[in-house]
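stage 2 :: seqdesign
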């Protein structure tokens, strides 16, 4: 066990940090972020962190570049204030889609983020539902990836499947990658699975849906993906489902509700009946006028328990679904 635990919040999502602190039975540490007229940032730590076990929560939210820079300066300030260990808690990891060199002369920016965090002073990283599991391998320091699934499963079983017959649903994986990444959803929920066959020709976030393999007519669809950015993929899947399979209902679930641009307006006008998301990024203001469509699940219990386990030197295995625990050790 390290020294006393301290929890700090960056500017990106203080609401989530305070929820985590409340579940830990502690308060958020004092700090100050100063932005100068020349757009430089200074972070001042308002607590004695010498030989302490420090956790800093900073998600990837607008303005993303500013939030990244603020976190790096925060980590550097803690390192030079002699913290014994500094854990960067990133509920939504920045540049998570830039995870491979699939075009000539481009950066693998997710790997660059890993290097920057370590250089700035992070001793370890805690994140949730990476777009690609391989991102964990970019780190030379310990990096733990939480899954939001247990809280989503609790909602599905205690709310959704009590309102609607479970046997009426088919899990629709947003693409082949999601089918592999979220295979434990089928193991835990015991539902039939369909997979979306889609292609993209450029970076405009507008996919072409060619087929949905395994979907059954007049069944309700529960679409699973890791994030909703512009909403285009989700909307195209929903339109294809409605036209081709006449589902009773179309529901969607995603951990990270980025909801960029006019995504909320487009989703409200789509055939989707309900969207269940996590709170890894600030979302309340974006959906304030569309609360009937969205259900936001609080993921702070998972982060609080993970932080406590890391601080105590305990295993994180209890935080994962049983089918995932059987597949790999933690």
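stage 2 :: out
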């Amino acid at each position: 066990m390290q020294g006393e635990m301290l929890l700090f919040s960056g500017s990106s999502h203080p609401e989530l940090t305070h929820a985590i602190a409340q579940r830990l039975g502690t308060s958020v540490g004092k700090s100050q972020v100063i932005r100068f007229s020349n757009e430089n940032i200074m972070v001042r730590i308002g607590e004695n962190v010498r030989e302490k076990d420090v956790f800093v929560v900073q998600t990837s939210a607008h303005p993303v570049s500013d939030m990244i820079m603020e976190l790096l300066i925060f980590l550097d300030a803690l390192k030079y204030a002699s913290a014994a260990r500094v854990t960067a808690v990133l509920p939504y990891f920045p540049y998570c889609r830039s995870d491979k060199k699939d075009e000539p002369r481009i950066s693998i920016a997710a790997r660059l983020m890993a290097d920057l965090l370590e250089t700035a002073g992070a001793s370890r990283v805690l994140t949730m539902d990476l777009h690609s599991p391989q991102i964990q391998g970019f780190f030379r320091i310990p990096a733990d990836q939480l899954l939001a699934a247990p809280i989503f499963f609790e909602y599905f079983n205690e709310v959704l499947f009590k309102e609607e017959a479970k046997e009426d649903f088919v899990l629709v994986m947003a693409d082949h990658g999601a089918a592999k990444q979220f295979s434990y959803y089928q193991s835990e929920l015991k539902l039939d699975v369909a997979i979306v066959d889609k292609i993209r020709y450029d970076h405009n976030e507008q996919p072409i849906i060619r087929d949905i393999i395994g979907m059954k007519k007049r069944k309700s669809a529960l679409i699973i993906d890791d994030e909703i950015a512009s909403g285009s993929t989700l909307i195209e899947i929903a339109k294809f489902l409605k036209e081709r399979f006449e589902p009773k209902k179309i529901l969607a679930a995603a951990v990270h509700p980025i909801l960029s641009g006019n995504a909320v307006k487009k989703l409200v006008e789509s055939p989707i009946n309900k969207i269940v998301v996590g709170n890894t990024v600030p979302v309340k203001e974006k959906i304030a006028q569309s609360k009937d469509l969205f259900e936001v699940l609080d993921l702070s219990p998972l982060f609080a328990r993970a932080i406590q386990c890391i601080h105590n030197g305990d295993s994180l295995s209890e935080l994962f679904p049983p089918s995932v625990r059987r597949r790999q050790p933690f």
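stage 3 :: structure notes
- The first strand starts at residue 5 and ends at 9.
- The chain has two domains: 5-148+300-327, 149-297.
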